[in-house]
Each structure stands twice: as C-alpha cells, then as structure tokens.
C-alpha cells in the first residue's frame, strides 16, 4: 500500500517535469522556426552594401558612446581605440571612471593627453557627484568623466547626463566593436523614422580570436571547453531566442554588451536603476512599460549581425559568479515589474514575454535542477524508476543538446562567421555533450543564485579581466 | 505505457539527432566547397587584377577576360566593386561601367529573376554601383511585380532615380515611403526631374514635402531660394521649419526682417533654426538677440546660438566677453564650449 502511494508521488512529479519540458521544447521550436526563416532570407546578402548608404547620409543621428570603467586598466585603452576607429559620421566617446582604484584614470589621461575642462552637467538623473571632467586635446570628441564610485548603473547615468547627442550606447570596458557596428544598429532606427527607439546587436565571444589594436584580425575558436560551451550558449541565445522575440516586439533584453537607446526615452524612464544587478534588462523593461502606459507605438529591435565581441570567463569560479549574478538580475527585474505578468493592459509584453521569462528563463533552471536530482535518485532506486530516469534524460537531451546543435548549424547555414570546417565540427560535437556536463553545471549555479537571494546574501563578485587584445 | 513513451521519445531524439548529423555533413561539405571556391576566386582576382586596372585606367582593349563561370563572375564583381569605390574620373567610371556591362549583364539579368530575395538585392546593389543603365528595362519590369518586398522597391526606385528614368515621378507616386527613403531617392535626381517634384510640392504628402526641402538644404540649392522662401511664408509647423533650415543652409534670404522676429518665437525649434540662419547669413543685426539666446532654457537653442555667434568674424571675442561677464552658468558653459570646439 505504502509502496503504491510512493509510486504515485514519484510519477506525478516525473510527469510534471516531463510536461514542463515538452511545453518549453514546443516553445523553443516555434522560436527556432521564426529565426530560421528570418535568417535564411538574408543569406549571402551583401551586408556592407546595405549599410554604405547610411554613411554619407547627412541626417544620420549622432550617437554618444558611454564606457563605464571600473578598474579596467588592462583593456580600456584598447576599447577606446577600437571605438575611435568606428565607421560612423558623428559620435562622441564618454569614458566614465567609476572611482577606480587602479591606473585606469592615469592611463587614459596619459594616452589621450586629457585636459581638465569646466562644464556644467545638467542633472536629469540623480547620480553620485562628478569629480572632474576631462577632454582630450588630440580628439575633441573624447571625454573622460571622473566620479565617485557608485557602481556600473550610476556610471552610466552620469554618462547619460553628460552626453550631448539624442542616442547613446553603453559599452562594457573590454568589448571590441565591429567597424560597422553603429551603422548596423542605427539602421533600423533611421529606417523607421525613429519609431524604433532602441536597437541591439548580437554579441560574440572574443576569446580565441586574434585581436590587435581593438580590431578583430582573425576569427578563431578557443581551445578551452568552457569557452566553447559559452560560444554555443551565446549562439543559441542570440540566433534563436532574440531574433524570434524581436520579430514580434517582445524583446526584453538588450545585452549589456551592445545596444543603442534613445536618450529621451531612457531619461523619461528614469535612467539606469542603481540597486539591481541587471540594470540593462531593467531599463528595457521600464521603457517597454512606459511605452505601453503612454500608448505610443515605438519599438525595440534586434539585429542578427554580430556587432560586438566580448571576453567571457575562462575558469569555473568566475563563470559561476557571473551566472549567479545574472540569475539574480533576472529575478529582480521580473519581481520589480511583476505587475506586468499576465496583464492584458501591457499587450504582448505582459501576456507573452513576461510569462516566458518567468516560466522558461527563471523557473527553468530550478525545475531542471530538480529533474537532475530526480534522475540520479531514480538510478539508485532501480526497477521501474530507471524508466523515468531514461524518459527525463531523453527529454533533456532534446531540450539542451539538440537545440544547441541546431543553433550551431543555423549559424553555419546563414551567417557563416567561423572560417574553418573544423570549427563547425568542433562546435557541433561539443554541443552534443551539453546535456551531460555544461547544462547541469550552469543550472546548478543559477539555482545557487536563487538560494543566495533567499538567504539574503548580497555580495556580487567582481569579474577579473585579463584583456583579450594584444 | 511509460515504456511506449520512452520508445517514442527515443525514436524522436535519435531521428532528430540523425537529421542534425546529416545537416552537419551537408554543411561541412558545403563549407569545404565554399572555401575551395573562395580560393579560386582569389586566384583569379590576382590573375586579372592588373589587366582590369589597365582597362579601366588606360582604356586598353579587353583580351582573354572571360566571365563564363560563376567563379569568374564573382571575381569580376568583387574587383569592380573595389575599384568603383576609389575611382574619381568620368572616363574611368564610364570604362568600368562598360566593362561591367560586357561581363556581368547576363549574370545580373538572371539574378534579378532569381527566387532568392538576397540574390535579387545583391544584383540591385551592383547594378546601381556599376551604373549598368542597359539593365534599366529589367529593373522597370521588377518594379511592376506584385509581390516585391519593400526593401527591393526602395532600391529599385533609387536605381531609377540614378538612371534619371523618365517616368520616375509616376512610379514614385504609387508608393508610400518614409521621409528618409524619399530623401535618399530624391538626392539622386538631376535638376529636371527634381523640378517636377518641386512643382507638385503642394500636392505631395508631408514626408515627401520634408524630403524635398531637405534635399534643397543638403544640396544648398540656391536656385530654389525663392521657392523655399515662399514655402516658409505660406506653411506652418514642420514644413515651415524645414524650409527655414533649407534657407539657413543656402545662406541667402531677400529680406531678413521676418527671420529676425522668429528669434523671439515661442517654439524652441523655430528659435533654434532662426539662430542657425542668422549665423550662416552673418546678419549683424541679430547678434544682440543671439547673445540673449545663450541664456535660453533649451539646450539646443543655446548650443545653436553659440555656434552661430562663433561664425561671425568677431564671434570669438563676443563669446569670450560672455564667458567673462555673464552670471548665468549655462550661458558661460555654452560660450566656453564653442570657444573650445575642435581643440
């Protein structure tokens, strides 16, 4: 008798996980199809040609590039250099030194012959006080703002207050931009006559590529398995997820690594929020919310072209910290704006995007984690339970590995960025192993993030960069 | 029951896995082929490069330049694309265009009829770049197709504008474009065809009107100054503002008085563009008001006032005195800004 009941509980639980996975699989498949059609249409399109026209256009909107820097002495000069050679008619670069304790400030001042200027900054968003403002004597469009430490979001807000142009973009300290990055992301904004108010591009991983003076010389593949898995993860997230979501204006994330926003709307939405870990997602959600509340027809879009190369963690400890932080950031954004969930007033954002982010992105790892524990338990229990374990394992293969493999193939089918045949085979074979090690690992870390939040641990953990550029 | 499910799932997973492996096989073969093809294209490009150069630069005869295979066509296309960006002289451009027609006309004709959107788009890009006017008829035919995408249509219109196609105005009227798109198309028209649009200005939709005025302002087309002044006098709102902007670019008006009054307008956009106009005409009578506008509450107006003042011969001195005497931090800041622009 007792045995029967026990079996019931176990099977209800197994079915719950299985049904959850099937739903998510169906959802992913739909998104995959949408992305596939979109990407395929542009296969072999001469993209440089498509952007050329925008270059000599007098009316191209000027952009302010904000680079928040906290202890970035390893990479700051390189990133600024890569920004200076960007192919765009009018832009300014604002490096915001967020009270670094290393030589970031001195390095910048030396390299670009910065000189103190006195300027009144209009405080449209409240921030920590600015100490000094510098302007380069060699390049009049390069500024350096030195301020008291207040975190990345605060630094971005200072940059926003200081910026002169109607559009801005925030860039992480150690990212390398493609030369045409701005043309690519500004294109939808100009084309739509400013109906599009924010636009992001896809981010690729720079580890393993040959970079010199802030330019990608050769695209390559790292030999570190962790990095390869992250490449696959990014491909999957950007190629599949975001293109699919962007088609229907459901986009909730513009990656912190690269996106252009309208300054007007960002300030109206209140700028970056300082007490959250995921300030970029938070801002996008707030802008969406503002748009719906004001009932204006504006859009946020995503460009599939890779526009920005960024460095990712190469060892477990840092990757673990990053994942924990991401997951908490996600939760905080969703929680702050929980009122949007299933709220028809907010249209498709409330009815589709928010539930998606809650169910798939946030709860997903927790349910998967339970699934993994369950699988291991079943193996020990033996008998009929083995079958449950196999069932779940097959589902998670579909869920993890197969979609990643599809993403790798989708990349090769449409964008073909990796030059060698072996690169693709390597990526493909690695993605095959995802279910066995990488996915359980990241799922576990995400759950740790949730746990930390529950027990109220607020340490963030810094990301130490070694500098990808030579 | 569960056994059946497992079997079912296992079959699905395995078959999908097989499918993906097949796809991988296909893609790797494709990639290997592509790499080989790329090498052949590069080889051919190296081989014919000097010859192409002497054809374009010195007008040598074509000899032994074949474009019969897709590799040779692609190589030719890439070489010509590179040259077309750096060429300056009219003769050279003509020779390049002739060479392109000689080698690639048939290829693009076929590509324009391709089922693939990206093939058609690429063909359109190159037809415009190489100025392949012999393909005009094919482009016109494409423009009449029913299921043409918006992006293709924009490009077709650009090409028709570049080729100064006679029936251009009628074609354009059938389409509803954005201001930006109109502008980039109208920019390509010669004087005669553009005149037609100026003549029918009053009948045009607002985006087209904005675009017409913007083109006048971009081209600094002084021959349209009376037209633009008329528009400025007889319209309101955005059209009026654009006309004002065009006048500021042209840098000439018959009577300055109404524009001086506009410096006191209640709309900040009008104050700003009026300040721009005063600066570009360098009308001394406007200086006192420009100095006042340095205190304007709108940043854009202050900035424009600063720029306009700096355009006067004694502008730097005026800004310097504002910097030293003004009590308003915003005005001082703006004066400082324009004194230090382009350091």
Automatic annotation (TrEMBL), chain A:
GO terms for molecular function: glycosyltransferase activity. Keywords: Glycosyltransferase, Membrane, Transferase, Transmembrane, Transmembrane helix. The chain crosses the membrane at residues 12-37, 356-382, 388-410. It comes from the Bacteria. PANTHER family: POLY-BETA-1,6-N-ACETYL-D-GLUCOSAMINE SYNTHASE. Belongs to the glycosyltransferase 2 family. This is Cellulose synthase/poly-beta-1,6-N-acetylglucosamine synthase-like glycosyltransferase. It comes from Neobacillus niacini.
From TrEMBL, chain B:
It comes from the Bacteria. It holds the Pfam family HEAT_2. Gene3D superfamilies: Leucine-rich Repeat Variant. Keywords: Membrane, Transmembrane, Transmembrane helix. The keyword tRNA processing does not apply. The chain crosses the membrane at residues 6-29. This is HEAT repeat domain-containing protein. It comes from Neobacillus niacini.
